[in-house]
Design brief:
With 484 residues, this protein is of the alpha+beta class. The strands form six sheets. A nine-stranded antiparallel β-sheet has the order 16-21-24-25-26-20-19-18-17. Strands 1-2-3-4-10-9-6-5 form an eight-stranded antiparallel β-sheet, sandwiched between helices. Strands 11, 14, 15, 27 and 28 form a five-stranded mixed β-sheet that branches. It is globular.
Length: 484
């Protein structure tokens, strides 16, 4: 039986001689290294029972340290790339999979998805197989393997697809939104966030989109009184050294002489007048108890109020759902994640670079999401997430994107096209089809059950992304629809 190292090198540019060095504390995580020089070429993750879960190949690092270049290789056809992807999957995945989709990514690579099927009903099982990225020369860049166990449920199908459509269409599927479209704020009707399904028993189901934010989980709040400055909320102290670079400000510990080499503990970066980033890595100590969530929320509100002003009129606050656990990318409740969402975070962790010194100990934090609204209409593109340390109350991270207030205040938000007409136009070509849907088993968290539902789908090339509320123009997915 070939070793993983021997197999993997065939799919890496230059076929370097590699080894996999597993973490001593966590044997499910490993680093792909050059066998002779111990240079890092990527990361790998395996399941507890030794199956490949995900991998990331750092092609740029391989080319940097070896006499090899992409210019030496020709671009392959999609058919050839699919063949390479299938061979790669056969090496690491035992279940039978069917090709489902291919899409171009950044003009340099393709994303391919292979999934298992319910043979009896000829339905794909979502998130049941392998997703991988392969560049146009045929080298694997990343892959995620879903190795979960699953069962297929066969409930009685009590309604037809036409019945399901009638049930779904009882509520509007679009809502007003203000979006920055091609550099101008526009009033649009956009599909409601989340996914509506109709179970085969006739019940309507709704699932929130992962990392989407909407009015259903957000509340207004009272005017905010600011009692602490932005610097104080970020943890700036008198013994820190401030270095200014134009509009950007960086704080270092003590009187550092090597600011070009050292990482600042606090950053305020003004990308432009409408986009700012804040980050604080000041030291912290774990206490017996975390600060109350109300205290953390007030810190986040004060921080935003000190920068923006009148935030109680401009934003809704996303309500936190239950106890959150820390990850290097945010605050999540792991048991609430679907398998797709777990894979998302696993891939992000594999892609994480060494931006910060390994000695930094990150404080667990709670994320508060402020959703911008204007006269009752949401601007979801301008949602602000503020991470607040659970023990210190320090603002740990915030990216602040602001709309153009002048343009916003002059925008006509009374639609010419009524909601009913926009909704009818959106629904006009929607069709319902039988589909498999993931359900987590209550008794066994490692088991996925695939239920039967009807899902709405547009014909190919007819997926509506938005409808202009003033002109009635329809924007399709295949058309040039760019949000700034």
């Amino acid at each position: 039986m070939k070793s993983w190292e021997f197999i993997l090198r065939d799919y890496m540019i230059g076929r370097p001689v590699i080894a996999i060095q597993y973490d001593e504390d966590d044997p499910t995580v490993g680093e792909i290294i050059d066998l002779n020089r111990e240079l890092p070429y990527g990361q790998i993750e395996v399941t507890e029972d030794g199956k490949l879960a995900s991998l990331l190949i750092e092609m740029e690092d391989i080319m940097e340290h070896n006499d090899v270049s992409l210019d030496e290789y020709e671009e392959l056809t999609q058919e050839d790339l699919m063949g390479i992807a299938e061979d790669f999957i056969d090496e690491f995945y035992q279940k039978e999979l069917t090709f489902r989709s291919i899409s171009e990514w950044n003009g340099e690579s393709y994303l391919l998805t292979f999934e298992a099927k319910d043979v009896a009903l000829n339905l794909f099982l979502p998130n049941s197989g392998v997703s991988l990225e392969i560049n146009k020369q045929g080298f694997i860049l990343s892959a995620t393997f879903n190795q979960s166990y699953y069962q297929l449920a066969y409930p009685d199908i009590q309604i037809s697809a036409e019945d399901a459509k009638e049930i779904l269409f009882e509520q509007p599927l679009v809502e007003l939104a203000i979006t920055d479209l091609n550099g101008e704020l526009q009033l649009l009707y956009k599909p409601k966030s989340g996914t509506f399904r109709v179970h085969v028993d006739g019940s309507l189901q709704y699932e929130e989109d992962f990392m989407e934010y909407g009015e259903q989980n957000a509340n207004s709040f009272e005017p905010v009184t600011v009692t602490e400055s932005v610097k104080t909320l970020l943890g700036v102290t008198d013994d820190m050294q401030l270095i200014e670079d134009g509009a950007n400000r960086f704080w270092y510990i003590g009187n550092s002489k090597n600011t070009d080499e050292e990482e600042p503990v606090i950053k305020i970066e003004n990308i432009d007048s409408m986009f700012m980033e804040y980050e604080s890595l000041v030291e912290w100590e774990e206490q017996k108890e975390e600060l109350p969530e109300a205290t953390l929320a007030n810190k986040a509100k004060m921080f935003l109020e000190a920068i923006v002003g009148d935030v109680h009129e401009k934003y809704l606050l996303e309500v936190q759902q239950g106890e959150m656990e820390y990850s290097s990318y945010g605050i999540i409740t792991e048991e609430d994640l679907s398998e797709e969402e777990r894979q998302f975070f696993e891939e992000l962790e594999l892609e994480e670079d060494d931006e910060f010194d390994e000695n930094f100990d990150f404080e667990p934090y709670t994320t508060f999401s402020f959703i911008r609204q204007h006269k009752g209409v949401l601007l979801s593109d301008y949602t602000i997430h503020i991470n607040v340390g659970k023990y210190t109350g320090i603002i740990r991270e915030c990216s602040l994107l602001l709309p153009n207030e002048g343009k916003l205040n002059t925008l006509d938000i009374v639609p010419v096209l009524p909601l009913e007409e926009a909704d009818a136009k959106f629904k006009e070509q929607l069709e319902m089809h039988l589909a498999r849907t993931e359900v987590n088993d209550e008794e066994d968290e490692d088991l996925i059950i695939y239920d039967l539902t009807y899902e709405a789908e547009f014909p190919a090339g007819k997926e509506i992304m938005a409808i202009n509320a003033m002109s009635g123009e329809v924007y399709y997915a295949e058309e040039e629809y760019e949000e700034d």
